[in-house]
Amino acid sequence: MKSEDKKFEEMSFEKAVARLEEIVSEMESGTADLDAMVKSFEEGQKLVKLCTAKLSSIERKVELLTKGENGKVEAQPFDEDLKS
Fold first, then answer.
1. Which of 4, 13, 28, 58 has its CA 20 to 30 A from that of 76?
2. Which residues are bridge partners to 10 per DSSP?
3. Which of 50, 49, 80 is closest to 64 using CA atoms?
4. Element (H, E) at 13
5. Residues facing 74 on adjacent strands
6. What are phi and psi of 2, to 5 degrees?
7. Of 83, 7, 3, 2, nearest to 47 (Cα)?
8. Which helix (H) or strand (E) covers residue 75, if one does?
């Protein structure tokens, strides 16, 4: 595994999003040359993939504990409509 790939795997979701925001700002400024823009785009693609994977993993883990009709605590999938 490349050290760059390992760097991405160990990055937190928050740091990945912050880096994506930096990349977008740099690209929107228009000051970078074409080679730098391509490199930034490639890094951004890796970060998007990382964030998507982390969100998918978290989505699978998120469950709400609720009491069922029989009084037992049951795990139920997170229902987006119940968010406050």
1. 13
2. none
3. 80
4. helix 13-29
5. 66
6. -70, 150
7. 7
8. strand 73-77
For residue 5, pLDDT over 60 is answered with yes
pLDDT digits (tens, 9 = 90+) for 18-33: 999 999 999 999 998 9
For the record, the structure tokens of 56 come out as 């998918």
Cα-flanking dihedrals φ and ψ of residue 64, to 5°? -100, 135
| Span 44-54, pLDDT tens digits | 999 999 999 99
- Report the alpha-carbon distance of residue 23 to residue 42 in Å, rounded: 10
Higher pLDDT, 15 or 63: 15
Cα 37 vs. chain centroid, distance in angstroms? 22
d(CA 19, CA 6): 16
- The residue written with tokens 């009084």 in the block is 71
């970060």: which residue's tokens? Answer: 47
